[in-house]
C-alpha cells in the first residue's frame, strides 16, 4: 500500500533447508507483477528446492507448515535417535540413521506421489512392530499435537504480518 501502484511485488517465504538446496519456498504476486516476473522468480529460486506460486493467503500457512515445520522434524529426529540410544545404540549412529530415515520417507512421498497414510500403511504388518509403535504415538496424540503446532505457528505468522 505504501509503494507506487506500478510497483511489481513478489512476496516469498523460504525455509532453512534452502541452504542445502532442499528447501521449500512459496511466493505470491502483487497486482503489478505478471507472468514474466513470476517465471523469473521461480526460475531463480528453483535451485533452492521446491518452489511454488500460491495465493497470498497461503504464505502464513507455509510459515506454520514448512518454515517452522523444519524445527518439528528436527525434534522428531532427535526423539527417534534418543529412543535408539535408550535401547543401546551409539548416539552418532542413531542420529545418522534417523536423518536417513526421514530423508528416505520424504523421498518416497515425493517420488511416488502416494498419500502419507497409504505409505504408512504399507510399512505395517498385522501384529508387527510398526503397528504397535504407531499405537503408542496415537496414544500420545502425536498427530493432533503436530496439527495444533502448525495452527498456532500460522496464527502467530498472521499476527506478526499485521505488526
Q: Could you explain how this protein is built, in words?
A:
It comes from Atlantisia rogersi. This protein is mostly helical and 163 residues long. It folds into 2 domains: 10-54, no CATH class; 68-160, ProC C-terminal domain-like fold (Orthogonal Bundle). The protein is built from 7 helices and 3 strands, in the order E-E-H-E-H-H-H-H-H-H. Strand 2 (23-29), helix 1 (35-45) and strand 3 form a beta-alpha-beta unit. Helix 2 crosses helix 7 (142-162) and helix 3 (69-86) packs across helix 4. The mean pLDDT is 95.
In summary, what is this structure?
Its EC number is 1.5.1.2. By secondary structure, the chain is mainly α.
Assigned CATH class of the largest domain: Mainly Alpha
Low-confidence stretches: none
The major sheet is characterized as: 3 strands, mixed
Count of DSSP-assigned helices: 7
Topology, number of strands = 3
Share of helix, binned: 55-70%
Q: Quick one: overall form?
A: elongated
- The N- and C-terminal alpha carbons lie at a distance of 14 Å
Instruction: Specify Rg, calculated over alpha carbons.
Output: 19 Å
Trace the largest sheet across and list its strands: 1-2-3
The H/E string reads EEHEHHHHHH
Give me the CATH fold name of the largest domain.
Answer: ProC C-terminal domain-like fold
Considering the protein shown, what is the CATH homologous superfamily of the largest domain?
A: ProC C-terminal domain-like
Oligomer: single chain
Note the beta-strand portion: 5-15%
Mean pLDDT: 95
- Identify the CATH architecture of the largest domain: Orthogonal Bundle
Number of domains: 2
